[in-house]
Amino acid sequence: MAAGATDELSLVFHALADPTRRAILSRLSSGEATAGELAEPFAISRPAVSQHLSVLESAGLIDRNARAQWRTCTIRTEPLDEVSAWIDEHRALWTERFELLDERLRDLKQKQQEQDNPQND
Amino acid sequence: MAAGATDELSLVFHALADPTRRAILSRLSSGEATAGELAEPFAISRPAVSQHLSVLESAGLIDRNARAQWRTCTIRTEPLDEVSAWIDEHRALWTERFELLDERLRDLKQKQQEQDNPQND
DNA sequence: CGGCCATGTAAGCAACTCCTTAATTAATGA
DNA sequence: TCATTAATTAAGGAGTTGCTTACATGGCCG
């Protein structure tokens, strides 16, 4: 019972939690590429890249079309939308809370100032 | 040389790649809480929660203020902003590419139709 | 001060991650 | 058909993760 969370959101977050995989996605942003082209700039072996691609594929972040002996990769945006939605939802809540907190802090500060200098009234 | 990526973005994504940690953050969205309060609904031990909180703290996602013997946790939004920025940037690029691809596909389809029915000119 | 709290740290274990090299699959072209 | 090219799968190792059960820390109240 260890690090294996299998729900979709966890898979996507996990896939994005690796600099190599993010770099691969960045590379794919500017156009589809073969596994070999992706492996070249990263100073890791071809199989390592293959495994990274499998992780990205499991997370639904890329498609691998086996055309001839060249497997070209393309990107899918849907999982990112889900991630974005999660983040936006929670950030909205938190920001709301922070504004409330800010207000409360301002109130406190004001009250404290009034206490510190009661003659200033 | 294994699973340890130490850059900030990786830390945040990794921290979010666990359902328990996301649930903790959700719980904290509705107000600060102590470690004990957070541990209760999750059916895991207190130390386990403590470790999850450490991960979230390392990623900069929460603050732990040691007030008395109750350590209350509060949320920070800055890391989420970074994550959002990364996602938005890349999704924008991909969407752009998809629109280009769509166009190309429409062009191809049209040309093919013209080839299939040359007399329709 | 000494016994309770709530919490964090340490040690240990099974499962997983990411990398490697070696063997395998699959399509191309002489 | 057989060597070549491109990529994945298999096997194995160093290091992490996430959980557990003890143990240690530090503030509270009798």
Give a description of the structure:
The structure is a homodimer of 121-residue chains. Chain A has helices at residues 8-16, 19-29, 35-39, 46-58, 78-116; strands at 33-34, 62-67, 70-75. Chain A has 121 residues and is mostly helical. Chain A has 2 domains: 8-76, Winged helix-like DNA-binding domain superfamily/Winged helix DNA-binding domain (Arc Repressor Mutant, subunit A, Orthogonal Bundle), CATH 1.10.10.10; 79-116. In chain A, helix 1 (8-16) runs antiparallel to helix 4 (46-58) and helix 1 packs across helix 5 (78-116). The longest helix of chain A has 39 residues, at 78-116. The model of chain A has no long low-confidence stretch (mean pLDDT 81). Chains A and B meet through helix 1, helix 2 and helix 5 of A and helix 1, helix 2 and helix 5 of B. Chain A binds a DNA duplex (30 and 30 nucleotides) through helix 4. Chains A, B: This is Transcriptional regulator. Chains A, B: One of its GO terms (molecular function) is DNA-binding transcription factor activity. Chains A, B: Pfam families: HTH_20.
